[in-house]
Amino acid sequence: MTLQEDTKLLSVHNLGCIRGGRPVIENISFDLPGGKALVVTGPNGIGKSSLLRTLAGLIKAHAGSMTLEGAEDDLSVGQQAHYFGHADAIKPALSCRENLKFWQTYYGHPTRSPYQAMIEVGIEDLIDLPAAYLSAGQRRRLSLARLLVSYRPLWLLDEPTSALDKASEHKLEVLMAEHLIEGGLIIAATHAPLGLVDPLRLHLDRNLASEPALDDALSEPTAH
Q1: In which domain, by residue range, is 57 found?
Q2: Residues 40-45: what's their mean pLDDT?
Q3: In whole angstroms, how far apart are CA 126 and each of 3, 12, 103, 215?
Q4: pTM exceeds cut of 0.85
């Protein structure tokens, strides 16, 4: 698979955040070019989710900087990102169509209609059903469809295969591959393999104190 050339570049330098009065992540630095994915691994509680939430703007960084060049340079990284976290970000009283329409209006940059996005994730028959009646797996797929109704160059995925069956996991692999081919960027925190082709990797380890473990692939784009 050949990734198209792209000028986007996510640069993160010495990023840190504090939660509950203590540092959760410190001195995180990496460069991620368009068309590439970064897989974040490490034990539970090490700060993988906090890193993604900081990039998304949901947690305030107390140190460092982050920029996404080559997209909408006047916007923050979080304003250019889809965040797919543990919570499904779904209003139970709204139908599936209404949920997706809300997020499409909020995000802007529409790409697919709610119905087309639900076809992609295999739950189009449920489009007018209130989200309260969905199973955990169906809710997860509806939340995944949020990424498809509006374009944002950066996908931040926190344990994205949680509650997905094998068919849905395969569909997620396809959608991620398509996003990367189009020049998008993906950062995924996970304990499970995601089927990504040649991703960069960032391993967070308590034994390394404030320094993340960067493998050789991650150090290729730039040296810090």
Answers
A1: 9-214
A2: 92
A3: 34, 40, 17, 43
A4: yes
